[in-house]
Design goal:
Pfam families: Peptidase_S28. With 513 residues, the chain is of the alpha/beta class. 40% of the residues lie in helices and 10% in strands. The chain contains 18 helices and 8 strands.
């Protein structure tokens, strides 16, 4: 049995690509960035909103299909969704700032409901909030909004790229400022995860549109020959090992036991009962991936307060998982220990009666990340060494490339992102220092993606904020009364830096006038 970062069979968070099930053994798309249920955040935002005003207004902008060519097809248009909240905006006369979220690979409403930091600081800055959806996701679908056409083949999906998305954002922001008679209002872009990558790249490519960028948990260095493919799983391993050596050993030793059990007569039925798997489907690889998903995404979202970002989970869920594994009540029953740990991720609410390994929901329309992972977003994460919590495995680009060619008919371009935005031949730190400014890179070291993040200051205006106990874009979550001091300090640092950017902008604008 080979445990890889292949979550296609049952991807609740970044959704399973149900259409790819036939080729799951040959395509390894790697871990995606997390996302899922939003109930808790929705409730909280509702409390912040007045009883007469909605959280945001939904708007559409007529967007061009292709920003970089002038052939007839390039001029096709599509309706591009964005969300806007002007509750606290000081207005164009004061040149009050505009805070823009650069949308990730999914429905923009989900991201709006999970980026509480922007809503929390809007009153302080008297800021207009705008959340722009990424093309080919949510309701921002080219080709008449018809997903059957837009997703049909490489000829249509070829317009799904990070550079096209960045150009979308620039075009929309410029038009919006013009329509609001706010052409001099400063724009700051925000983003987390892939959205954070886009925010940092937007600042580099469109410095005349945005005066600064907050890029949270943005693994802009997580590409071949820059970040080790073992980094991701090494951090997950350290997260669990730091809580309990026994917890680490139990998980590490469980994969062979699962495999061996599955080969025995009646073994699959034993596994099904041990892990409360629904009767419709049981498979050793699927079960192993189900557990791997729980451990990986719990490490990623090891938040210091209860959350409902992916699934309902308690504060410090890695610690809680290890407590379940170390619980003497389970004796030497490895499967009981693993089930108790996985339940913190999959069934903390206690409402699930069984777990369906064949179920592949995509509640937030995230499945086109598979295209991006087959073209330009080649981010090695599947390497596992001898010390890893997961079985040993080597990152295999050739396998990825072959799978992408078989399914989409395209060859990946693993060096394109670093060619377009910097890296490889030129040290990204030297590159950013020479021509970048006004960027914040936040990373929490408990986040597996932090291995591909910017972890040290590059210049006086390109600042890295690193939190030893931080998880995946925890700084962008809503503030709560239970937030630890280190998290409150991180957010205050971000507020202070953004304030300096805006103050300098106003100073320069006044002198220019």
């Amino acid at each position: 049995m080979r445990i890889e970062a292949n979550l296609i069979l049952f991807f609740w968070a970044f959704s399973i690509f149900s259409c790819l099930c036939f080729s799951v053994s040959s395509i390894n798309f790697g871990y995606r960035f997390p996302s899922s249920a939003i109930k808790a955040e929705q409730v909280k935002l509702t409390r912040k909103s007045s009883s007469t005003n909605k959280l945001y207004k939904t708007k559409y902008f007529t967007q061009i299909l292709d920003h970089f060519n002038f052939n007839p097809k390039s001029y096709q248009k599509f309706q591009h969704r964005y969300l806007i909240n002007d509750t606290y905006w000081g207005g164009p006369k004061q040149n009050s700032p505009i805070f823009v979220y650069t949308g990730n690979e999914g429905d923009i409403e989900w991201f709006a409901h999970n980026t509480g930091f922007m809503f929390d600081i809007a009153p302080h800055f008297q800021a207009l909030l705008v959340f722009i959806e990424h093309r080919f996701y949510g309701k921002s679908i080219p080709f008449g909004g018809d997903k059957d056409i837009a997703y049909s083949n490489a000829s249509t999906l070829g317009y799904l790229t990070s550079t096209q998305a960045l150009a979308d954002y620039a075009t929309l922001i410029i038009d919006l400022k013009k329509n609001l008679t706010a052409v001099d209002a400063p724009v700051v872009v925000f983003g987390g995860s892939y959205g954070g990558m886009l925010a940092s790249w937007f600042r580099l490519k469109y410095p005349h549109v945005a005066i600064g960028a907050l890029a949270s948990s943005a693994p802009i260095l997580n590409f071949e020959n820059i970040t080790s493919p073992y980094s991701f799983n090494n951090i997950i391993t350290q997260d669990f090992r730091s809580e309990s050596e026994n917890c680490y050993k139990v998980i590490k030793g469980s994969w062979k036991k699962i495999e061996d059990t599955g080969k025995q007569s009646g073994g699959l039925e034993l596994l099904r009962k041990s892990f409360r798997i629904c009767k419709n489907f049981i498979d050793v690889d699927a079960l192993a991936s189900w557990l791997e998903t729980a451990f990986a995404y719990t490490a990623m979202t090891d938040y210091p307060t209860p959350s409902n970002f992916l699934n309902p989970m308690p504060a410090y869920p890695v610690k809680q998982m290890c407590k379940a594994i170390d619980d003497p009540k389970s004796g030497n029953d490895t499967f009981a220990k693993l089930y108790g740990a996985a339940s913190f991720y999959y069934n903390y609410s206690g409402t699930a009666t069984c777990f369906n390994l064949a179920y592949s929901p995509d509640p937030h329309g995230l499945n086109m990340w598979s295209w991006q992972a087959c073209t330009e977003m080649i981010m090695p994460t599947s390497g596992s060494n001898k010390e890893s919590i997961f079985p040993e495995n080597q990152w295999n680009y050739s396998r990825r490339a072959a799978g992408c060619k078989a399914f989409y008919g395209v060859h990946p371009r693993p060096n394109w992102i670093t060619t377009e935005f910097g890296g490889h031949q030129q040290d990204i730190y030297r590159v950013l220092k020479r021509y970048g400014s006004n960027m914040i890179f936040f990373n929490g070291l408990r986040d597996p993606w932090s291995g591909g993040g910017v972890l040290k200051n590059i210049s006086k205006t390109i600042v890295a904020i690193v939190a030893e106990q931080g998880a995946h874009h925890v700084d962008l979550r809503f503030a709560t009364k239970d937030d630890p001091k280190w998290l409150r300090d991180v957010r205050q640092m971000e507020i202070n830096i953004i304030s300096d950017w805006i103050s300098q902008y106003y100073h320069d604008l006044a002198h220019q006038s």
